[in-house]
Amino acid sequence: MDLHFPHDPTDDVLEQFQRDGHLTLRRFLDPLELEILEPGLSAAVHREDPNAGVPWEERSTYDRAFIQVGDVHQSSDEARSLVFSRRLASAAAALLRVPTIRLYHDQALYKLPTRGDGGHTPWHVDQYYWPMATDRCITAWIPLVEVSDDMGPLTFASGSHRMVEGRELEISDESEARCDRALAEGGYTRSREPFELGDVSFHLGWTYHSAPPNLGTEERKVMTVIYMDGEMRVAEPSNDHQRDDLRKWLPGLAAGDLAASDANPLLWPAT
Q1: Are 86 and 268 in contact (CB under 8 A)?
Q2: How do residues 183-229 score in pLDDT, each as one tens digit?
């Protein structure tokens, strides 16, 4: 995975990303390599599932949607090969139009098959959770299996990274209702497509997105990597989630510091 981003920075695809706040690159990664990585990565995710043993009826809307495990690269060599991929990091740099990229953190998001009483992902923005001083942060969404339309692929609101309403909301039933209404009133086009193995989606931290329930019979297995500008500064946390993220993903740092703890290595260019 050492190939660089295959488009010139002036290519129309980068303009599309700036306009829409999201972009899917088809067959960006080698499907065979992903097939090889998936079993070991999935074993680590299931081993560290924080909701293992919690009854379905006691789970929140969010916990009914996912098995969510962070920093999988610390326990899985397979995850590390994705998180430290030069190909992914160079794409993040090109899309953000920054010369250097650092790791913020990674997360596995395995969407569970629905049981008829939950499992959707409400409308939200990721950067609500992140104590970052600028908007130069991006998520790579990397399916480890083919994701058909009935398995709950991401739905994006194109251009919504410019919408301010709803940014103060954590992911919840309230964010689903309020953001859905605001996006409709703003006339934002909604985009949802299935993913073949090897397709990778990128979206900005302020881009609104959601996903329907997984109506299939298998888990929707996805690895995500969150990247940030290599010169990102830590912002003063504005909510408890950002305070938690500061402790967890930017350990030892404070507002105004370069976001460069030992947990945030430079990924592009490689050192």
Answers
A1: yes
A2: 999 999 999 999 999 999 999 999 999 999 999 999 999 999 999 99
The strand pairing partners of 25, in sequence order, are 200
Burial of 30 (0-12, 13-18, 19+ CB in 10 A): middle
Whether the upstream peptide bond of residue 269 has omega within 30° of 0, thus cis, is yes
Residue 7 predicted with pLDDT over 90: no
pLDDT digits (tens, 9 = 90+) for 94-133: 999 999 999 999 999 999 888 655 578 899 999 999 999 9
Q: To the nearest whole number, what is the mean pLDDT of the chain?
A: 92
